[in-house]
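Protocol step 4 of 5: obtain the predicted structure for the target chain.
Materials: sequence only (see below). No template structures provided, no constraints applied. The aim of this step is simply to have a reference model before the mutagenesis design in step 5. Sequence pasted as it appears in the construct record:
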Amino acid sequence: MGIGHALENKEPIDWPSLMIKHMARIADPQPGSHQLAYGNLLTIVFKEFVVPIDQVPIASPRAFGPVASLLRDLRTVRDQLAVIHAENASLRADLLASQGEVTKLQE
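Step 4 output (structure tokens):
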């Protein structure tokens, strides 16, 4: 019911962590474990809500679990990469300007 409520209110859901937790419970033979056929359920849910299956959503900062942690790390690295690309572009522009000055001085 919690997932249905979140979907209805368009609240972010950390699907990868949720699926991993439930799959671990399905594999656990202890009493109280879940018995759920994920292949059928998820296909129906994704088709109904037109969810692109080939994309992994970025987890919200409040999400927990190993997948959410990896997704946060990925976002951090992407942000760092963007900064490096910007610095690289600036340095290349400075290099071109310096090379132009060197050419003028040599002439």
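Step 4 remarks: Helices lie at 2-8, 15-27, 38-48, 66-106. The radius of gyration is 24 Å.
Proceed to step 5.
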